[in-house]
Amino acid sequence: MSKRFILWVCISLCTCMMLRAQNEQRFLSPVFNEINVQSEVQYSSAAPVGSDDPDPLYFDFYEPAGDTMAYRPLVITVFGGAFVAGNRTWCDMVAYAESLSHYGYAVASIDYRLLPVYRISETNFIRAAYMAAQDVSAAVRFFKGNCDTYRIDTNRIFVIGNSAGTIASMHCVWMDDNERPEETFEDSGFLGIGGHSDLGGVHTSGFPEYLSHSPNIAGLVAQWGGILDTNIVGNDDQTPICLIHGTADETVSFYYGAPYEENFLGITSLILPDMYGSYYIDQRLSNRGVDHEMHVFEGEEHCFYIDGFTTLLPEKFDTCFHIAVNFMAEHLNYPTTPTEPDGIAEQESEFVTVYPNPASDQLNLQLPESCQHFTCYLYDSQGRLVLQQEDATTLNLSTLTTGWYEVKVQSSNGVFTQKFVKR
Fold it and tell me: Are 215 and 349 contained in the same domain?
């Protein structure tokens, strides 16, 4: 081995260690001074309650200015408002989006279909919640289909919900088509009056070109929400979740009841469905062995970080924000950085062979013939996704800097990794 190559390896190791130290605080503290915002970008088109005519649905996109990370984690924020009010620009949604962008996340604050107040009923409330769940799914699939445009790491998409946004998000994550409420199916009504159309499957809304993408996410931050039936959390529903709820919530009960039941002397129980709050959701998640956190705030009311609809309470918001930040950071699950030079030539899997190693401008992958369809992910020494390709056995490294990298191949045969050096 030449002295020049040994010197290069030493320099690369030192550079990687310095860069790692610099980037260790990303996602845990604000490391970007400026952010960029794109407003009113359409992600879906769907008909709201009581209409057959689709309306456009939009998001605002926030990202760190000058960010060189090729593919970033994405956070989708979903506002609250009882499915009758609210939008993507409400104060807490903007606060989350701006703060998380400074921390290094890409963020999309989305709209979803709302229910006209004059149409409120138990059936329409359930249909509105279901439609909102469909819209959250459509947003996830949109970004997976446009991951290169928005530089999104499709394995690291999180959702943060507030109230109705949490209700929608939890049903999106847990509800299967065979668990759909009967209110979401076609109903001819009485003598043809008051009927409803079939809303379709949970993950069938949105632009058709994104239907093939998975709606799965890396984690959900569920603030003061509830679900119609805890049985929708099955053994196969293993999405990590962080529950945040106040015990004095009279809008969405911490325990069980109809929304606003305590506010209006129980009248809302006649027109709105009963829901299970975080207390019972936590029990169900524990019984199903789901990775989750439960943050209980004794004596706090609904959406306790906002005074009214427009005034954010900084101290209480910061508490919830840092709960969310810590939860997401723990579930980013970036690969461990290789530290020993012997790891260069070590074969970690008999399934995948990479060559040459070290590599210059091109890396080749050798896989068995049985592997027909796979996704290749390339991570740098800080665990950042820098390349993502489908069914590619040759990777172009010409734009990458020198240093340690890890290639991960995911297919029906399993998930396999190899480490190599770019020189």
Answer: no
Q: Any idea what the CATH number is for the domain that residue 385 is in? A: 2.60.40.1930
Question: How far is the C-alpha of 141 from the C-alpha of 146, rounded, in Å?
Answer: 9
Which tens digit of pLDDT belongs to each residue from 218-262?
Answer: 999 999 999 999 999 988 889 999 999 999 999 999 999 998 876
Q: How far apart are CA 120 and CA 84, in angstroms?
A: 9
Tell whether the model's pLDDT for residue 346 goes beyond 50.
Answer: no
In a shared domain, residues 305 and 367 = no
| Domain tally, the chain | 2
Burial class of 15 by CB neighbour count within 10 A (0 to 12, 13 to 18, 19+)? middle
The verdict on pTM exceeding 0.70 is: yes
pLDDT tens per residue across span 54-64: 999 999 999 99
CB atoms within 10 A of CB 283: 13
Is residue 254 domain-shared with residue 312, that is, in the same domain?
yes
Give all strands (DSSP E) within 1-50, no chain letters. Answer: 35-46
Distance CA 8, CA 45 (A): 53
Query: Of the candidates 410, 414, 420, 417, which has an alpha carbon nearest to the alpha carbon of residue 154?
Result: 410
Report the chain's terminal Cα–Cα distance, integer Å.
14
β-strand pairing of 35-46 with 55-64: antiparallel
Query: In terms of domains, do 107 and 69 share one?
Result: yes
Residue with tokens 């703060």: 99
Q: Domain ends where: 300, 330, 360?
A: 330
Closest CA to 46 of 199, 269, 237: 199
Of 374, 376, 360, give the one whose Cα is nearest residue 408: 376
Q: Average pLDDT for residues 274-289, to the nearest whole number?
A: 95
Single out the residue in 296, 330, 364 at which a domain terminates: 330
pLDDT at 53 over 90: no
Cβ neighbors of 161 (< 8 A, separation 6 or more) are 77, 78, 80, 167, 168, 169, 170, 220, 221, 222, 223, 225
Separation of alpha carbons 222 and 242, rounded Å? 6
State how far the Cα of 218 lies from the Cα of 412, in Å rounded to an integer: 20
Beta bridge partners of 326: none
